[in-house]
Every structure is written in structure tokens, then in C-alpha cells.
Specification:
Layout (H helix, E strand, L loop, with lengths): L1 H8 L2 H22 L28 H4 L1 H7 L2 E6 L2 E6 L2 H10 L11 H5 L14 H19 L1 H21 L8 H17 L8 H15 L1 H10 L12 H26 L9 H14 L3 H5 L3 H32 L1 H14 L14 H14 L8 E2 L4 E3 L2 E3 L4 E4 L1 H5 L43 H18 E4 L11 E4 L1 E4 L5 E4 L2
Parallel strand pairs: 2-6
Antiparallel strand pairs: 1-2, 3-6, 4-5, 7-10, 8-9
Organism: Porites lobata
InterPro entries: Cyt_P450 (IPR001128), Cyt_P450_CS (IPR017972), Cyt_P450_E_grp-I (IPR002401), Cyt_P450_sf (IPR036396)
Family: Belongs to the cytochrome P450 family.
Length: 510
């Protein structure tokens, strides 16, 4: 009887009426959910999918897919993607508020499937959300890095060793065209190996060479990366018979196996009486101190899984963005030879034939200005890793509820004509004052983020960039290929933004 009644009710007309009522209920819920939030498409939000159809499907990356929404709703907008509320912050005021003024409110990370699986359950500094584990390991990481950077002779020796190898490699090219990507990457990676694993470790070690190759593979696999990150907006995707997550995560798990092997070996030879000279030893010292204090809560956070993630953060984050920045520097200087000539004059006047030193930084402002301008125009990280609100808060007067994913678009600020004169033009002198001194705090500049989630490796990156570039520019003039075509100043985005592959020539200076 009941089934018959239901069947008679579900006529075509009643079925359509039911669908209409459900649609009205859905949109009322969407309007309530996004009340007082930044503007955005509301009536195009579909159940389960959200505003997926409002994105530009021809776009090559997520930032580009948001462009049409910026045009329609402004540089601060909100949408729903799958199960997540999204806010885009693309104005100087919004970026500063999210990263600096209210950084504690925006300090979270979204614990998506790929993020959790790829960090062994959120045991990571970069992708982990604030909590006892994250705070402890970020502190250990920054302490170890600070100790390393305080030993100026050590860091200069390690960078100088790799810089000499890099210069020799370029000399052997004898002015012939070459792609600098691999040699720059290996030079920086070898410095990071020494910091992370200890004196004498570099990518000539088969395991560390494989570690580098696996990291490169992860970054190069743009198709799987973009698809996996897109599927993360729809939690049900993890239960579907898809191979993309398996392909995306495979290199990460192989990387963890290699690091686990190094960690196990170091435990066997660990001597707590020896001074800390590398990250692994620093982590083992921290664990020993916690055990000595009988601090069970802290000891529970000093597990191998946490250490492995921290070590991979150091290795991957340390080499990739720094080497990519150097690729951008060389591309810009070949396109703008007048600035390269000015750098050469300053190097000759200040240090002559001497080896560049960190003590020379204040006397070589043009190299530092070139690095800053490259970070501004090249935008190695144009769209910061999404932040998540850990409490109900606001952004430029709009309501932003807890657990909202916030994309901070630093590139839009770096290229904003209201913030910078002729923003798309490469001009290092905009960072030098009338007295020839470096301007270090102009505002509207966030290549390393800011606030609580600022990149912990920023001090090391600046040291490496200065020393490597000083060495290369002291020894060589970099010019276009023999056909005269300079590198294209176009970026390819996949987590970081790197220049289109190019070839240049290194002409030895007399």
C-alpha cells in the first residue's frame, strides 16, 4: 500500500516539483553559507561539484582558471569547489591582512587526502596545520638552520666548493650553448645535502642522487599533480578506482624510504658528544634531550615519521626554489645585458679577483637588488600554498568562517601597477636608493610569504643565491645562443613557477 502511494505520487510533474524544491533548498543553503562573504557565483553552485563550471577549463593551472572570476567579481572573491569554501585574496590589503595582520587566523592547512597521505598523516612542516607536533618540528628546523647559518666559514666553504664545480662545468662548455637547469639544480642540491646529511654528502652518493631524481620527477609530473590536487576538492575521489593518486604519491614514498635508510644508519653512529653540524644530528639531539627529560608528550612527537618529513622539507624546499630563482636570474640578465654589465663593474670595483664572501653583501647591492627583482617579476611561488582559517575571522571587511581555504595570490601584488611603477619591467635599480644602498623593505613583496607560515628556509636561500650568483657573474658573461635569441621570459607553473627551458652561453671574463 505504501509503495503504491509513493509510486502514484512520483508522477513526472511531482518529480519535477520535488527537484525544483530541492534546488531551491540547495541555493538557499548556499546563500546562507556564503552570507557576508566576498562576492562570487552563487546560482551556478551545483550539489557535490560546487562552482566547478564557473572555472576556465582552458586554463593551464588553478591560478589561470581563477582569472575570469577575478574579472567578474573582483580581486577578492569566494566560491565553492567540491566540499570546500574558497576565498581568493589578490589585493595588497587582502594579502597583508591574511599573511601579516591576522596570520594566526589564517595559519592552518587543508588536510586533504593527498596532503595527509603524502606527509604520513600530517607530520610535516610545510603542509601540517598548527599543533604541538607542527610547532615543535618547525622550532627544531629553524634552530638547526640558525645554528648552521651562524657558522659563516662552514657555509661559505660548502657553497664555495659547489660554486667552483659549477664554474668549472661552465668553463668546460667553452662558450657553447647549454641548458643551465641541471648544473644549477645539482650545485644547490649538493649544498643542501651537506646541511641535511652532513659533511661530504652530495649527489655523487647513489642514494642521494636517486633522492634528487625522485624530487625532480615529482615536480616535472605536472599532469598528475594538477589532477590530484583538483580531485582533493572532492573527498569521495579517494575511494574511486583512480590511479592518479598512486602515480602522484609513488615518488614521495620512495623518497621516504631513502631518507628512512639514512636516518637508521645515522642512529647507529650517533655520538651526542659531537657538535651539531647537520640537520639529522640536530634532530637526534632533540630526541635525546626529550628522552632525558622524561617528557612523554614531547617524545611521542619525535618519531621517525616526523623526522623523515622534516628532512624532505629541507631537501626539496632547499634546492628547488633556489635553483629555479637562479634560472630566472640568468634568463633576465641575458635579456637585459645592461644590468649584467653594471653588476660586472661593481664586482670588479669591490672585490676584483678575490673570491666573493658574505661580508661583501653590503658592498654589492646590485646583485642583491637583482635577486629581489627576479623574485618579484619571476614569481617562483605565484600562488602560495593554500592557507586555512583556524577560527571565524574577516578579510577586508568580509566574513571568512573557520575552515575556509584561502588562496593568497602574491603574484598579483608583485605585478600591481599601484604597488610598483611599470611592474612587468625588470629593473633592479628600483631596489636601490639615491645613495646606492639596497632598499630592503619596500612592502608589497612576499616571495617567501609572511607571518606564521613564512618560509623557514628564507635566510638560507638568500645566502646561497648571493654566493652562487656572485661567483658565476664574477667569472662569466652570460649571453644568448648563437642565433641571438635570448631566453623567453615565460613561466611554467607546477607548484612552483619556472622559466621555459632555454640555452645560453657562458663567456669567460678576462
Amino acid at each position: 500500500m505504501v509503495l503504491a502511494t509513493i509510486y502514484s505520487f512520483l508522477s513526472l510533474g511531482n518529480f519535477l516539483l520535488l527537484l525544483l524544491l530541492l534546488a531551491i533548498l540547495h541555493y538557499l543553503m548556499i546563500l546562507y553559507e556564503f552570507r557576508n562573504m566576498p562576492p562570487g557565483p552563487r546560482l551556478t553552485s551545483l550539489p557535490v561539484l560546487g562552482n566547478v563550471l564557473s572555472l576556465d577549463f582552458k586554463a593551464k593551472d588553478l591560478n589561470e582558471a581563477f582569472q575570469s572570476l577575478k574579472k567578474n567579481y573582483g580581486r577578492i572573491f569566494s566560491i565553492k569547489l567540491g566540499s570546500f569554501k574558497i576565498v581568493m585574496a589578490s589585493t595588497p590589503d587582502a594579502v597583508k591582512e591574511a599573511l601579516v595582520k591576522k596570520s594566526a587566523d589564517y595559519a592552518g592547512r587543508q588536510q586533504t587526502y593527498s596532503a595527509m597521505a603524502g606527509t604520513l598523516g600530517g607530520k610535516d612542516i610545510v603542509l601540517g596545520s598548527p599543533g604541538p607536533g607542527w610547532k615543535l618540528h618547525r622550532k627544531l628546523f629553524t634552530t638547526a638552520l640558525r645554528q648552521y647559518l651562524s657558522d659563516i666559514p662552514l657555509i661559505e666553504r660548502r657553497v664555495r666548493t659547489q660554486a667552483e664545480k659549477l664554474v668549472l662545468f661552465m668553463e668546460e662548455k667553452q662558450g657553447q650553448p647549454f641548458d643551465p637547469a641541471d648544473c644549477l639544480m645539482r650545485a644547490v642540491a649538493d649544498v643542501i645535502c651537506g646541511i641535511t646529511f652532513g659533511e661530504g654528502y652530495d649527489t655523487t652518493n647513489p642514494d642521494l642522487n636517486m633522492l634528487l631524481k625522485l624530487n625532480i620527477e615529482s615536480i616535472a609530473n605536472a599532469a598528475d599533480t594538477q589532477l590530484a590536487l583538483a580531485l582533493d576538492f572532492f573527498p569521495v575521489a579517494q575511494y574511486l578506482p583512480l590511479k592518479v593518486y598512486e602515480r602522484f604519491l609513488r615518488p614521495t614514498f620512495e623518497i621516504f624510504d631513502i631518507i628512512r635508510k639514512f636516518l637508521s644508519e645515522r642512529k647507529k653512529t650517533f655520538d651526542p658528544e659531537r657538535p651539531v653540524k647537520d640537520l639529522i644530528t640536530g634532530l637526534l639531539h632533540a630526541k635525546l634531550e626529550a628522552e632525558g627529560e622524561s617528557n612523554e608528550d614531547r617524545s611521542a612527537l619525535l618519531t621517525d615519521d616526523y623526522f623523515i618529513n622534516t628532512i624532505e622539507d629541507m631537501f626539496a624546499g632547499g634546492y628547488e626554489t633556489t635553483s629555479t630563482t637562479m634560472k630566472w636570474v640568468l634568463a633576465f640578465l641575458v635579456n637585459y645585458p645592461k644590468y649584467q654589465e653594471a653588476i660586472h663593474r661593481q664586482l670588479d670595483e669591490v672585490i676584483g679577483d678575490q673570491a666573493p664572501s658574505l661580508n661583501d653583501r653590503s658592498r654589492l647591492p646590485l646583485i642583491q637588488a637583482t635577486i629581489i627583482e627576479t623574485l618579484r617579476v619571476g614569481n617562483v611561488v605565484p600562488l602560495a600554498i593554500p592557507h586555512v582559517t583556524v577560527t571565524d575571522t574577516t578579510l577586508c571587511g568580509y566574513r571568512v568562517p573557520k575552515n575556509t581555504m584561502v588562496f593568497v595570490d602574491t603574484e598579483s601584488v608583485h605585478l600591481d601597477p599601484k604597488c610598483w611603477d611599470d611592474p612587468t619591467v625588470f629593473n633592479p635599480y628600483r631596489h636601490i636608493d639615491e645613495d646606492g644602498k639596497l632598499i630592503t623593505n619596500q612592502g608589497n613583496f612576499f616571495p617567501f610569504g609572511a607571518g606564521r607560515r613564512v618560509c623557514a628556509g628564507e635566510p638560507l636561500a638568500k645566502v646561497e643565491l648571493f654566493l652562487f650568483l656572485s661567483w658565476m657573474l664574477l667569472k662569466f658573461t652570460f649571453v644568448a645562443e648563437e642565433d641571438g635569441r635570448p631566453p623567453k621570459l615565460k613561466g611554467i607553473f607546477n607548484l612552483t613557477q619556472f622559466p621555459v627551458p632555454y640555452k645560453i652561453r657562458a663567456i669567460k671574463r678576462k
